[in-house]
Amino acid sequence: METASNTLDTPAAVSSTAVEVRAGDERLVRLTEAAGRKVAALVAREAQGEFLRVAISGGGCNGLSYKLRFAIAPKRGDILVPTGGARVLVDPKTALYLKGTVVDYSNALIAGGFKFTNPNAKASCSCGESFSV
After folding, report:
1. Alpha-carbon distance 115 to 111, whole Å?
2. Neighbours of 26 (CB within 10 A)
3. What are the structural domains of the chain?
4. What is the pLDDT of residue 61?
5. What's the CA gap between 27 and 11, in Å, rounded?
6. What are the pLDDT tens digits along the chain (133 aa)?
7. Strand 86-90 versus strand 51-58 pairing type
8. Residue 67 CA: distances (Å) to CA of 16, 18, 91, 103, 106
9. What are the b/e assignments for 68-98, b being 16+ CB within 10 Å?
10. pTM of the entire structure?
């Protein structure tokens, strides 16, 4: 990953000030086509920001859980991964646990939603929303 200073010229950007972000790629996190379409639809519908932030926090059945939220702009030190037609932000701490993760989406009534396949997880719960390393 290389370090880059990007100026965001999108209407959703808070300001045109340069924000230091690192360029990442799908070796860190990859959205499937289905997940990318769902993220694009949610970005348009929710109008909460043009970036999807993927984070990992303590909690859940197995100790760590995935968090998804929209962001208006990257924060200093974020890793920006263009994938599946979306722009995903990952903070450096989360990147340690996320490397190689694939995010899929299913609209099935049972067990639908975003699903994470994380090669770093030693165990995960049956719902797939928490894991341990």
Report:
1. 9
2. 15
3. 2-7+19-119 (2.60.300.12)
4. 61
5. 29
6. 444 444 333 333 333 346 788 999 999 999 999 999 999 999 999 889 999 999 998 865 657 888 999 999 999 999 999 999 999 999 999 999 899 999 999 998 887 889 999 898 865 655 555 555 5
7. parallel
8. 27, 26, 12, 12, 17
9. eebbebbeeebbbbebbebbbbbbeebbebb
10. 0.76
Sheet holding 19-23, edge to edge: 2-6, 19-23, 79-83, 86-90, 51-58, 64-71, 130-132, 123-124
Q: How many residues does the chain have?
A: 133
- Rg of the chain over Cα atoms, rounded to whole angstroms, equals 15
Q: CA-CA distance, 13 to 99, in Å (whole number)?
A: 27
Q: In what order do the strands lie in the sheet with 113-117?
A: 29-31, 101-106, 113-117
